[in-house]
Recover the amino acids of this structure.
């Protein structure tokens, strides 16, 4: 399952390929009506096939390219969350509108992901397109009407929307919502007790996990939300946590371990302080993304899905960051590096080895940065 920010990237990429000069993005989050709605309107050249055919996962405009896959997956996720996806003429810009809606609090709703980054990166890499963003619903009060991508990103960063099945507790204000499966639940470092800078013991972490399990007892669809929170508490999902969850939710251990193994956003190994993601989407792949990945693996001495011994770096791959025009692209935490050269990977890594990223411009040839 994608998060919605990745689906948004795919929809925006369709608008770019359709030659759009204007794109309007709408996000409505309304607790009173239990509604989440996302729309994208453009003034591009319109659909090349009927809406039904476009949403067919096997629809293709080029041999070997299944262009409808992303939209069909989004439609399936929306329907699973009590909503739907519609595609047709844009009533405002005359091109195409893609509109998806679903129940805000549905346990099967895809997590929102990093919507701010999706919007900012797409706008920054397509300067010839006029992007406007509307944020509405009781979650965004007052609403933002046709604001700039920067204004929207600032609003999204200030008020991060709550994702399904993550509830607040009175004793521990840690369950404030998870934007995607990789996000930590609380503001402290994994394993940190939050006081005096001391690292929490395993017993303390398990005690926190027990409280979470207790709050989800008897609730349908509790397993994935509890795993989310557990990953936020520990920083990953150790075997002791999986066994405690299986016992607490009265689920077979094989089922719990199977869910963790199926979803790539769960990790059973500790993640490093810096998470590196290498884009292997089509544009990045043909422009040297694999060479960048191999250079990182050699420099770090780890493979994809692993973490360095000093817990400094973890390495993952991703499908697309929406910066195809500046490929190859990698991200380190929330920093995007464009036009990365394999021979200069070390110039990027040294910026993160001892503390937060430096503010100076990256070294020439080591990739341009977008904060």
């Amino acid at each position: 399952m994608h998060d919605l920010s990745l689906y948004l990237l795919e929809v925006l990429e369709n608008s770019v390929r359709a030659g759009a000069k204007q794109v309007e993005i709408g996000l409505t989050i309304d607790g009173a009506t239990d509604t989440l709605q996302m729309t994208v309107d453009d003034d591009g050249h319109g659909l090349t096939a009927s809406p039904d055919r476009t949403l067919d996962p096997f629809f293709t405009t080029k041999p070997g390219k299944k262009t409808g896959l992303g939209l069909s997956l989004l439609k399936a996720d929306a329907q699973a969350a009590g909503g739907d996806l519609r595609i047709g003429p844009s009533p405002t810009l005359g091109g195409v509108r893609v509109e998806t809606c679903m129940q805000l609090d549905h346990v099967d709703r895809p997590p929102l992901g990093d919507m701010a980054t999706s919007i900012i990166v797409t706008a920054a890499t397509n300067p010839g397109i006029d992007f406007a963003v509307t944020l509405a619903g009781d979650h965004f009060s007052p609403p933002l009407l046709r604001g700039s991508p920067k204004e929207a990103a600032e609003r999204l960063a200030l008020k991060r929307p709550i994702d399904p099945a993550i509830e607040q507790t009175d004793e521990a204000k840690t369950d404030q919502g998870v934007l995607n499966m990789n996000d930590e639940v609380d503001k402290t470092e994994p394993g940190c007790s939050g006081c005096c800078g001391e690292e929490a013991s395993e017993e303390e972490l398990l005690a926190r996990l027990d409280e979470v399990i207790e709050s989800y007892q008897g609730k349908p669809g509790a397993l994935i939300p509890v795993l989310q929170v557990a990953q936020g508490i520990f920083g990953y999902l150790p075997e002791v946590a999986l066994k405690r969850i299986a016992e607490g939710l009265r689920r077979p251990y094989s089922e719990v371990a199977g869910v963790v193994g199926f979803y790539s956003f769960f990790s059973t190994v500790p993640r490093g302080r810096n998470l590196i993601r290498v884009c292997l989407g089509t544009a990045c792949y043909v422009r040297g993304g694999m060479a960048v990945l191999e250079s990182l693996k050699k420099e770090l001495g780890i493979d994809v899905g692993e973490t360095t011994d000093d817990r400094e770096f973890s390495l993952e791959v991703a499908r697309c960051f929406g910066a195809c025009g500046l490929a190859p692209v990698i991200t380190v935490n929330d920093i995007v590096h464009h036009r990365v050269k394999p021979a200069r990977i070390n110039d990027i890594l040294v910026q993160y080895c001892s503390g937060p990223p430096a503010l100076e411009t990256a070294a020439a040839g080591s990739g341009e940065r977008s904060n």
